[in-house]
Each structure stands twice: as C-alpha cells, then as structure tokens.
Amino acid sequence: MASNPSKPSNTYPINPGSAAGTGIISRSAIPAGRTTMKALRIYAPGSSNDLVYEDASLPVLGPTDVLIEVHATAITFHEFQWPETYVNAEGKDRTPSIPAHEFSGVVAAIGSEVTRFVLGDEVFGIPGFDRDGAAAEYVAAEETSIAHRPLSLTHHEAATVPLAALTALQALTTQARTLPGEHVLVLGASGGVGSYAVQVAKSLQAIVTGVIRSVHHGFAESLGAHRIVQTGTGKLQAALQEADVVIDTVGGTALQEAATMMHDGARLITLGAPVEKALTKGRNIQALFFIVTPDGRQLSTIADMIDANQLRPTVAAVYPLAEGRRAYSEGPRLGRPGRVVLTIKD
After folding, report:
1. CA angle 117–22–29, rounded 5-degree value
2. What is the distance between the terminal CA atoms of the chain, rounded to a whole angstrom?
3. What's the predicted TM-score (pTM) here?
C-alpha cells in the first residue's frame, strides 16, 4: 500500500467528534471521507442463518490498535454459541457484531502508541473475541495480537493459521509442557486444530499418534504423524494407554474414552469443555481445559515454523464475503480437511 509511514495523514475517520485533536491515530492510508465498509453482521444470539451482509461503520481504533484491510478470514462454525460474540469485556450487549476471529491482511492505520507495525505491513492475527471479527473489509486488533504473516503463504492460507495453530502451540507447550520423546495422541487429527497439533508435536520431537476417521487417513499421514489410528478400532485403546499427552479437539464420547484409559501421570488437554471430575477421580490424571490467548509473539514463532516448512495450512474451501452465510452453512457438511475461508480482497 503506497503510503509513507513517516508522514501522518490523519485521514482515518476516528470516533465521530474526536477525530483530529486526540492524537489516537498516528498514521492512516484510509481515503479521507470514507466511513463505511462491507461486513457480515448478526443482530442477536442465533445462528449463521441470521447473518446479514451489509454496510457497517469502520472500526474505531484505540491508541494500541492496528486497523487491517482484510484480504481473507477463516471461519469457526460454532462461534455463534460463544457469549463473547454478543457482549463486550464488560458483559454489555455489542450487537450487531461481526464474526470470524482470524485474518490475514495489510495494515491500513495504526494507533498513536503502536511501535511494531507500519502502514503496508502484511500481517495475520486474532482480534479479541469480545470485539468485532474479520468478516469485513477492515478489522481492528490489538498490536499484541498480530504478527507479520508467513512469507511463504498466500493471504488465503495465512488466514487459516492464527486461531488453530496458536491453540495447538499453547496446548502442547504452555499447558502440557510436552517434552522430546513423549507420546502425544491427538483426537481429531484431521481437523483445524488437530492437524496443527500433529505438526507442532512433531516439531517438539514427540512421538505422535493421530486419531482420525478412516476417510482422512491419507491426509493425517501426510502431516507426519508416526502412527495413524482410526476411531472405532481396537488399536485406539492401546494408543491411549501409551499416551503421555492427549490433545482432545473432539469432545463427547471420545473425550470420555480418553479420560478413562490414560495411564497415571498423563496429561489431558481439552479444548471444547472441561473434563467431568468423575472420569479422573482417584487417578493421577492432569486434566486441563483452556481457551487460547491471542499472542503476537507466539504468532511470530508460528510464522517462522511455517517458513521453515515445519507447519503447513490446509484450505478446505473459499467463499466470497458476500456469500458468508452460505459458507457457514455449507462448511461443516463439506467433509474436507482444513479450514473454510472467506475472501475479501484478492
């Protein structure tokens, strides 16, 4: 984007009535007078069927925020069940809200206290879950929750990375503290988070077992798992009993089975819901449930891993932003590995 970062333009339309004098925005490449953008929005708790493609106001930036012109965003099918989709950090209603909480794009404006990015930087990241997402032409995100995107990826590929890969990295490092040589078993190894968990575990020099449905055997094998086990087979019980770390991306009966079969001293990391205490009562099983924390520094680590060919993303399908409601509806039924992406700017 052609803009000299040393010359503040102050063309970004800040919160009405406070634009010029506050110094909140230090530099911008948004054309003067532009105040709206195209976006997907939902007006009350519901489902993707309630999404509306329409004009929305450009995001309001804080001093530590970065405004990104979104090129692509990956979608999470169950985010309409998250309370944060409809309320802000104080618990107050913030509808109509914009979904999709990972993106790849180009820096279009920066807050006055931003130090790590300049106009035109190509970045990827996660806006806070309690603020508007990236199913729009522009999204605002904290400087600390974004990073320069991997050089080896397109915007469509990079958009699939932040939420899923960061969840996998934090599950295996911050939560499980995986050591080289340990056995890691990933439930749902062909899914968005699961596919990254296999690759991150391998990069940590763990011995990796991927648990999948039979239809995805070839894909899971291509990720580099040392062993592939299909659900519903007798081999799964033996694999669970060997595992030092289990990453559960599936929940339900798969999680219950894992919790009852793991050996004492093993760690079980769950992403959907906490483990029922009764399943591990009287046993030395460390069961941890966590929600990913946006972290730009860790995203930089992930970008380096991608450019070093240690991680690779998988795009299941691409839809234009205007067909976002269809993407949310059709995506779960595609039956393909990888993530569904909305494209905003080629």
Report:
1. 40
2. 14
3. 0.87
Instruction: Count other C-beta atoms under 10 Å from residue 49's C-beta.
Output: 10
Of 224, 260, 220, 262, the residue nearest 245 (C-alpha):
262
Residue 72: both structure tokens together: 């692509």
Paired with 148 in beta bridges are 123
Is the Cβ–Cβ distance between 293 and 170 less than 8 Å? Answer: yes
Residue 54: pLDDT band with limits 50, 70, 90: very high
- CB-CB contact of 176 with 287 (8 Å): no
Q: How many Å apart are CA 236 and CA 185, to the nearest integer?
A: 10
Candidates 308, 296, 291; CA nearest to 124 is 296
Reduced 3-state DSSP string for the chain: CCCCCCCCCCCCCCCCCCCCCCCCEEEECCCCCCCEEEEEEECCCCCHHHCEEEEEECCCCCCCEEEEEEEEEECCCCHHHCHHHCECCCCCECCCECCCCCEEEEEEEEECCCCCCCCCCEEEECCCCCCCCCCECEEEEEHHHEEECCCCCCHHHHCCCHHHHHHHHHHHHHHCCCCCCCEEEEECCCCHHHHHHHHHHHHCCCEEEEEECHHHHHHHHHCCCCEEEECCCCHHHHHHHHCCEEEECCCHHHHHHHHHHCCCCCEEEECCCCCCHHHHCCCCCEEEECCCCCCHHHHHHHHHHHHCCCCCCCEEEEEEHHHHHHHHHHHHHCCCCCEEEEECCC
Rg (CA), the chain: 21
User: Given this model, what pLDDT does residue 260 score?
Assistant: 84
Residue in 221, 223, 219, 275 with CA at minimum distance from that of residue 247: 275
The tally of CA atoms less than 13 A away on the side-chain side of residue 225 is: 28
270-326 residue pLDDT tens: 998 888 888 887 788 889 999 999 999 999 999 999 999 999 999 999 999 999 999
Reading phi first (left if > 0) and then psi (alpha if -120 to 50, else beta), residue 181 is in: left
The pLDDT of residue 120 is 95
* pLDDT of the residue at 162: 96
